[in-house]
Amino acid sequence: MISPEMRLQIAEIVTQYHFEQTELLAVLSAVQKKWRFISADMIAVIAEEMDLPVVHVEGTASFYHFFSTQHAGKYTVYINQSATAEMAGLKEIIYAFESELGITIGDNSSDNQIGLRTTSCIGMADQEPAILINGTVFTSITPSRVSELVAGMKSNSLVRDLVRIPLEAQKCYPTLHTEVRNNIRLKGPVFFCDYIPGIALKKAMELGSLDVIEWIKKSGLRGRGGAGFPTGQKWASCLASESDQRFVICNGDEGEPGTFKDRVLLTELPEMIFEGMTLAGYSVEAKEGILYLRAEYSYLREHLEVLLESMRSRHLLGRRILGTRFSFDIRIKEGAGAYICGEESALIESAEGKRGQPRNRPPFPVTSGYLRRPTVVNNPETLGCALRIILNGPEWFRSLGTPASAGVKLLSIAGDCRMPGIYEIEWGKTIREILDLCGADRTLAVQIGGPSGTCISEKEFDRRICYSDLSTGGAFTVFSRDRDLLSIVHNYMKFFRDESCGFCVPCRAGNVLLVKALEKIMSGNGTLTDLDKIQELGIMVKKTSRCGLGQTSPHPLLSTLNSFSEIYRDIVRKDVDYLSQFNLESAVEDS
Ligand code: SF4
């Protein structure tokens, strides 16, 4: 039963968010943070206070990783279990936590002081192993660091006091209290060069909104999230949609394992991104912008809020921007841990306080997006490019890259190389050139575009990063010849299995079956027939799934079956057509 005092405190939280149904995620996050769990009783109170059906609140609370019905510990430790974390010693870190605490993953210490969990990629592939403790990121973890952190948590230290801030960060970001390093390795002409806030916006206002859209179209800018939709066309369609209200959303939910460029942009160049949002708002006649920030980057929230306030005070945001009649403001909404929310329609659902399930399309967000109003959704990199186009002109932008892929691309390079980090390259570079840049040798494979992208072998290292060849949202993960590629594929496939939103059967069930089929191969019980079945099933999942997640989820298997077929063929049995993975003797061993 819920106490009257707790009921009152929940009501206060709901009041803080003005009873807005779109703020349900924020309310749930606040409740989770305060009590460390969200019980059925609490859900009933939230539903009553917000005038929402209980089933709606329950459905939302159960959708996201970072909400839990059970106590998650006064300190909740989420250990990142991505493939790059595995490569950097994840097993030792899990072992160290489990031995220090005497519990296993998924449990809490007996006094509920510390809860131990795992989570999908937290955007730190360049500094693994990494963990989150109550939302604060700790990077490059070692077993001895685990001992220190556990001791700190046992003695009730503030999480903030456990952070070791690198010297460079102390100098550059006084409002940012973090261990995360930016690792900018290659600066280019669009992002990591001179930027003075306000100049592009002033120029845009001199040009007028229609000309701004024309410039963006002429520049050839395409969305940098992976799909590559022409940005100018997106903005024009939004402007052309009849409505009393339009929105601009910056998709700060990069969840593709191996990607971390938006993390760096939001740390180093948030004003550029906010100005890019304002430029988009000016072009499509929107008055409101939302930065949807993934929960894993909530440590950036204070830093971003301070900059938003500073931009308001300089008339770069808010009412009557730069003394004109144009008003536009930006607020931040945080996710709660769900990869699918990187898909724009799922993100919109989540921003509205619902389960992050993709919508049927059409209608597309440009005609019916946030609150069913025309909405532009762009990621930080696209918005930054748009701003630079207004500063330097569309012809200048077109002169970079290749004729079909204009401009630059930010790559998040991680894995087996000496210099993991962010590289601003012109489109058109070959894989071989990029491997040289980041100091990779003895490379077996490169995963382009994260698990949903393509895995290529040395034979293909002369291929180019561009829309017409190897298109990518930015992840570039290197695997040396010492790596076991199948265990990496296994990690990726488990990621998709766990991140499927469960709406449609091919993705929900298909990914479970694909993981099982792969495990059968890895256990030595696979046959050539099983390899054919994996191909068949993978293609079926691709063709029949409802959204991009399911349509790309079989890629780790399909693309390695194509580029590294010998690895599979070497371990399957060729003397039989079928072997059961089910072993009766081991199944009844316990009983
Ligand atoms: Fe959900 Fe997967 Fe279907 Fe997409 S494909 S709607 S993630 S179940």
Commentary on this structure:
There is one protein chain. With 591 residues, the protein is of the alpha/beta class. It folds into five domains: 60 residues; 90 residues, Glutaredoxin, CATH 3.40.30.10; 213 residues, NADH-ubiquinone oxidoreductase 51kDa subunit (Rossmann fold, 3-Layer(aba) Sandwich), CATH 3.40.50; 73 residues, Ubiquitin-like (UB roll) (Roll); 87 residues, de novo design (two linked rop proteins). 44% of the residues lie in helices and 12% in strands. The protein is built from 26 helices and 14 strands. The protein has a six-stranded mixed beta sheet with strand order 5-11-10-14-12-13. Strand 10 and strand 11 form a beta hairpin. Helix 10 packs across helix 17 and helix 20 runs antiparallel to helix 21. The protein starts with a helix and ends with a helix. The model has no long low-confidence stretch (mean pLDDT 95). The structure holds iron/sulfur cluster. The site of iron/sulfur cluster has 14 residues, from helix 21 and helix 23.
List the helices and strands and how they pair.
Blueprint: H1 4-16, H2 24-35, H3 40-50, H4 54-61, E1 75-80, H5 83-87, H6 90-101, E2 114-119, E3 131-133, E4 136-138, H7 143-154, H8 159-162, H9 167-172, E5 184-186, H10 199-207, H11 209-219, H12 231-240, E6 247-252, H13 261-268, H14 270-284, E7 288-293, H15 301-313, E8 329-334, H16 344-351, E9 375-378, H17 380-392, H18 394-398, E10 408-415, E11 421-426, H19 431-438, E12 443-448, E13 454-457, E14 475-480, H20 485-499, H21 505-522, H22 528-544, H23 548-552, H24 555-563, H25 565-571, H26 584-587
Parallel strand pairs: 1-2, 5-11, 6-7, 6-9, 7-8, 10-14
Antiparallel strand pairs: 1-3, 3-4, 10-11, 12-13, 12-14
The chain binds iron/sulfur cluster.
